[in-house]
Amino acid sequence: MHEIGRYDGGLHMFVEEARSPDPRRLNFMRWLVEQNHFGRPAEGPASGEFADMAVEAFKPSVDSQP
After folding, report:
1. Could you tell me the pLDDT band of residue 10, with boundaries at 50, 70 and 90?
2. CB within 8 Å of 42: residues ≥ 6 apart
3. How far apart are the first and last CA of the chain?
4. How far apart are CA 44 and CA 53, in angstroms?
C-alpha cells in the first residue's frame, strides 16, 4: 500500500507529488476518445505539451497491418 501524500491545509485535501506522465496511458486515453468509447466526442486533434509524447510512444510496426 502506498503512502498518502502530504496534507494541504489551503486545499483541505491530501496531495500527491508531481509525476512524469505515462505515454502509454496518454495514447490509450486518446484512442478511447477517437473510438467514441470515452463518453464524449473529441474536441479536436491532439494538442498540448504531451500530444507528441503519446504519438511517439505508439508506433505500430509494418507487420501488424492486416
Report:
1. very high
2. 33, 34
3. 43
4. 17
